[in-house]
Specification:
Radius of gyration: 21 Å
Strand content: 15-25%
Number of helices: 10
Structural class: alpha/beta
Oligomer: single chain
Distance between the termini: 50 Å
Length: about 350
C-alpha cells in the first residue's frame, strides 16, 4: 500500500490490510496497558541504557547513529557495549562478537560490521537484558547502547533516541501493513531526542515532535576499499567512473544517491532485500553487466561476500553518520543518564565522576 504498488493492487489489498492494521494497533494498545499496570515485568539493568530506534519500517539510519554514539562515548573514557539481536545470524545464544573468529553469517551482518568498525564490545542476544548481563560479565561494559530499541518495553531505558527518515515520513498515520509505521506517531512524544536523516520534519508530524530536542544528520563518504586486493583509496577515485551499484539495505536508494553525490556515474542499480545473503550467482549477475569500470557496494554488504569469488574491480564505499551539534547531543545523553541513573549506580557503590571526567553522577 505505502510502498507504491499499482493502484489496482492497492484497492485489492486495502480491506485485508486495514483489518490487519487495526488488529496490530489493538495489540500495541493492550501491550502498552499491561506495561503501565506492571502486568508484565520490566527489568532494570545494572548499567545505564541508551536506546537508538525508530517508529517506521525500513532503513532510517539507526546503525550509523549507534556507531557514532559508541565512538564518542569511548572517547569520553567509557566502555560502552552495543546490544543487538544479530538479525539472520546462525550462531545461537547470547555472546560477545569476536571478529577474529566469527563471520557476518554466524553473528549477523550489522553486528559483525559494528564490532569491526567501532572496536567496542558488541553483544548479540534476543533477550536484551541477558545480553547486557553478558556484556557486563564478559566485556566489562559500563554502558549499553540498544540497536533498534525503541519498541523494547521490558527493559528500563535511560535515554530513548529516535531516528526519522525525513524523506519518507508521510502524512498517513496508518500502522503496518496498511502504512509504514511500527508504532503510532504519538509515541514520538516519549523520545528524549530525535535525529532526522535525509530531509526535515514535515508539518504533518511536527505536533508529535514539538519541544523535543531535534538534531539533523547525514551520511558522508569516508573512503573506498578494493575487497579482493585489500587496497584503500580516496572516494574521489569514483568520480566519473561508470559504476554498477548494488546493496541490500532498508533504503538502497540512499546509497545509490550518495554515489551520485560524489560524482560516480551509476549506470546500473542492483537493489537486494535488507540483510540479503549473497550467493556467487548474485556477484556474477552484477559482474556480468557490460560497459562499466567497477562494482561498488556498502561496507555492510561487503562483510557478507567474504569467501565468494569476487572480481578485481569490486569496491565498497565506507561511510559515516555526521550529526549536527553532536556535542550537544552527547551532553544531552550524559545529562539524562545523570538525572535518571544516579540513584541506581550509587546503590552499587559507584560514586564521583564517570571515566573521562564526565560528572554524570553529580
Amino acid at each position: 500500500m505505502w510502498r507504491g504498488e499499482a493502484r489496482c493492487v492497492r484497492w485489492v489489498l486495502y480491506i485485508p490490510f486495514f483489518i490487519l492494521s487495526m488488529l496490530y494497533r489493538l495489540i500495541l494498545y493492550f501491550r502498552g496497558i499491561m506495561y503501565k499496570k506492571s502486568l508484565i515485568k520490566t527489568e532494570q539493568p545494572l548499567i545505564p541504557v541508551i536506546s537508538v530506534g525508530n517508529v517506521s519500517l525500513g532503513g532510517t539510519g539507526k546503525t550509523p547513529v549507534v556507531e557514532a554514539l559508541a565512538r564518542r562515548l569511548k572517547e569520553k573514557g567509557f566502555n560502552p557495549g552495543i546490544i543487538t539481536r544479530g538479525y539472520k545470524r546462525r550462531k545461537k545464544g547470547v555472546f560477545v562478537v569476536d571478529v577474529k573468529t566469527e563471520t557476518a553469517r554466524t553473528v549477523g551482518d550489522e553486528a559483525y560490521m559494528l564490532a569491526r568498525r567501532t572496536k567496542v564490545p558488541v553483544i548479540v542476544g534476543t533477550n536484551r537484558h541477558e545480553a547486557i548481563r553478558c556484556g557486563i560479565t564478559d566485556a566489562l561494559i559500563d554502558m549499553a547502547i540498544l540497536d533498534d530499541g525503541f519498541q523494547v518495553k521490558n527493559l528500563e531505558k535511560d535515554v530513548d533516541l529516535v531516528v526519522l527518515n525525513g524523506k519518507e515520513i508521510q502524512a498517513s498515520r496508518d500502522l503496518f501493513p496498511l502504512g509504514p509505521y511500527r508504532e503510532p506517531l504519538t509515541r514520538l512524544r516519549e523520545a528524549d531526542a530525535i535525529l532526522v536523516n535525509k530531509g526535515e520534519i514535515g508539518e504533518e508530524i511536527f505536533s508529535f515532535t514539538e519541544g523535543i530536542p531535534t538534531f539533523m544528520m547525514a551520511y558522508e563518504p569516508l573512503y573506498i576499499y578494493n575487497v579482493k586486493k585489500n587496497l584503500i583509496g580516496h572516494h574521489s577515485f569514483l568520480k566519473g567512473k561508470r559504476v554498477v551499484a548494488f546493496s541490500g539495505l532498508g533504503d538502497n536508494a540512499s546509497f545509490f544517491d550518495l554515489l551520485r553525490k560524489i560524482d560516480a556515474d551509476v549506470v546500473h542499480e542492483v537493489p537486494f532485500p535488507d540483510h540479503h545473503r549473497y550467493t556467487a550467482g548474485d556477484i556474477r549477475k552484477c559482474a556480468s553487466l557490460k560497459n562499466v569500470d567497477c562494482l561498488v557496494t556498502t561496507e555492510k554488504d561487503a562483510v557478507k561476500i567474504t569467501g565468494l569469488e569476487l572480481p578485481e574491480n569490486l569496491y565498497y564505499l565506507s561511510i559515516e553518520a555526521t550529526i549536527r551539534d553532536e556535542d550537544r547531543l552527547l551532553e544531552l545523553v550524559l545529562g539524562k543518564i545523570g538525572a535518571q541513573a544516579r540513584h541506581f549506580l550509587q546503590g552499587f557503590g559507584i560514586e564521583g565522576t564517570a571515566p573521562g571526567g564526565s560528572n554524570y553522577l553529580q
